[in-house]
Write a structure and sequence with these properties.
3 domains, Cytochrome Bc1 Complex, Chain D, domain 2, 451 residues, binds heme C, two-stranded antiparallel sheet
Length: 451
């Protein structure tokens, strides 16, 4: 009896071990099968090299159209190092995952894309796969470019292939292991990438859809203005366009949650995006500066369409009536703080800033952003305001011909923190920003060029 128990116990143990081994073998087999499946899924063929097409092989009007599209897609601002040769690559993009350098997309055969066919270029733009079959990182916004029509991609190809070849090898990326393995990007794509051309919405007219196409496909506004998840993919639904950090700046919400006291009406968007300064808002600085400046080239009809679409996201036109009240309040705050010379913070502000950012004329000066209206003072993050005070806004950056001086050299961290706290307290009804002085010190340490 005792033996029988032992033996059945042993048998159970052996059977248990066998089951366990079978499970392990099964799991390994499944794992291998999964890996093989993943490898098959991740694998993309290399496309053949071609003889570099002669610039004269493209129709001039197509090249001209491609030039406008490439400008609106900011190709050169990501594919050119500051002061470098256009499209030569090497521009560094930093993120929590490490640094990725843009590649050379000039028509150089050896170091650029001179040997790429139109099909290889289309595949890169629409699927994020390079000519040699390797997966590209989503720092290249192919999840937006996938929406660009074949016709427009071909025009961009014609333009790029007509540029001067730049001989410059790619800078190796510095990504946290194992993220540098390109095949893993196939997993990211499986989770987050939905390839496909732009589909117009039947609920809207042609102009709105044209604006949506420009914003979503080519201009990829949401790449900066939408927050991302832990794996770096843009969040959808209500989070879309709800504001996000980018290169040390905060790209404000473009939804109704935008905290500017004056609404983003179509007129204001027009002035901000295409004249470089809006009377009730300010100027596109930091990473928004190259984005806005690239849009200046869009034909009038496209500018109107883009504004129409963006204005519809925040619904600013419906609130156009509140602009007058915001303006009245701003002028009143201006007048009171100029008279409040017993407040040492107000005195400091008047000495440092009011020579430009104040006018007693009772009208808003469109060339001097009113700090009670500018969203930098109203955002949940003080970063934009601190950056503007520390580093200023150069001529090529803000509105054409205007300069906001940099105060970083003359002012201590405590001075800048004090000014920011003062503006927050007197120009907005928002809660004070915590740890201001530490934030100023951190931003100063990062320097102006965080890109
Ligand atoms: C936000 C920055 C950014 C913008 C804007 C951008 N690119 Fe890129 N692009 C990159 C980065 C970074 C890479 C390299 C990705 C990698 O190494 O996986 C890249 C890679 C590419 C490649 C693949 C090149 C190769 O050698 O594998 C092509 C083609 C390309 N971009 C074309 C364009 C075109 C055309 C535009 C404008 C319509 C554009 N890019 C706009 C960042 C950008
Ligand atoms: C490369 C990142 C980037 C891209 C692309 C980008 N933006 Fe911006 N945007 C920003 C940043 C950063 C700011 C804040 C700039 C400042 O404070 O001067 C900003 C500011 C703005 C503002 C002003 C908001 C406010 O309350 O002050 C508007 C409007 C805007 N962007 C619209 C757009 C539109 C429309 C597009 C696409 C055509 C776009 N942006 C593309 C980064 C970007
Ligand atoms: C010499 C004149 C001058 C002085 C002094 C000056 N500013 Fe400015 N400021 C400007 C101009 C001009 C602009 C618009 C810049 C542009 O469009 O390029 C501007 C823009 C700004 C903006 C808007 C940025 C945006 O993204 O819309 C803020 C915020 C700002 N200044 C804050 C300050 C503060 C705070 C002080 C005091 C420390 C100050 N400025 C002192 C001229 C000045």
């Amino acid at each position: 009896m005792a033996r029988a128990i032992t033996s059945s116990f042993d048998e159970k143990r052996i059977a248990g071990r066998r089951l366990c081994r079978r499970l392990v073998v099964g799991a390994v087999a499944l794992g291998l099968l999964g890996l093989a499946g993943f490898a098959a899924f991740a694998w993309q063929p290399a496309l053949p090299e071609i003889a570099t097409p002669a610039p004269s092989s493209f129709a001039l009007n197509v090249v001209a159209r491609g030039a406008v599209l490439a400008a609106a897609g900011y190709c050169s601002s990501c594919h050119t190092v500051p002061g470098g040769q256009p499209f030569g690559g090497g521009y560094a993009m930093k993120s929590a995952f490490g640094t990725i350098y843009s590649t050379n997309i000039s028509p150089d055969r050896e170091t650029g894309i001179g040997a790429w066919s139109k099909d290889a270029f289309r595949r890169a733009m629409h699927e994020g796969v390079a000519r040699d079959g390797s997966h590209l990182f989503p720092a290249f916004p192919y999840e937006h470019f996938t929406k660009i029509s074949d016709d427009d991609v071909d025009a961009i190809y014609a333009f790029i292939m007509s540029q001067k070849p730049v001989h410059a090898s790619a800078q190796p990326n510095a990504l946290i292991p194992p993220l540098g393995i390109r095949a893993l990007q196939a997993g990211w794509k499986l989770l987050f990438f939905r390839p496909g051309r732009f589909k117009p919405s039947a609920d809207h007219d042609a102009q709105w859809n044209r604006g949506a196409y420009l914003a979503e496909a080519l201009d990829h506004c949401s790449a900066c203005h939408s927050p991302r998840n832990l794996l770096g993919a843009e969040r959808g639904g209500a989070a879309r366009y709800s504001g996000a950090y980018v290169d040390g700046w905060f790209a404000p919400p473009l939804t109704a949650a935008n905290p500017s006291p004056s609404p983003w009406t179509s007129d204001e968007l027009h002035a901000y995006l295409f004249q470089g300064i809006g009377q009730f808002h300010g100027t596109p600085a930091g990473p928004m500066s190259p984005a806005a400046h690239s849009l200046f080239v869009l034909p009038q009809a496209d500018q109107n369409a883009l504004v129409r679409y963006i204005a519809s996201i925040g619904g600013g036109d419906a609130r156009a009536g509140s602009a007058a009240a915001a303006k009245g309040l701003a002028l009143q705050i201006n007048a009171t703080s100029a008279g409040r010379q017993t407040d040492p913070d107000a005195r400091f502000y008047v000495a440092a800033c009011a020579s430009c950012h104040y006018n007693g004329t009772g009208v808003i000066n469109p060339a001097r952003p009113d700090l009670a209206l500018n969203s930098a003072a109203h955002l949940s993050s003080p970063d934009n305001l601190i950056r503007v005070i520390l580093f200023g806004i150069d001529t090529p950056e803000g509105a054409p011909g205007l300069v906001m001086p940099a105060f970083g050299k003359g002012f201590s961290d405590a001075d800048v923190a004090r000014l920011a706290a003062y503006l927050r307290r007197t120009r907005t009804d928002q809660p004070p920003w915590p740890n201001l002085q530490k934030t100023v010190a951190d931003i100063r340490a990062q320097g102006k060029g965080v890109e």
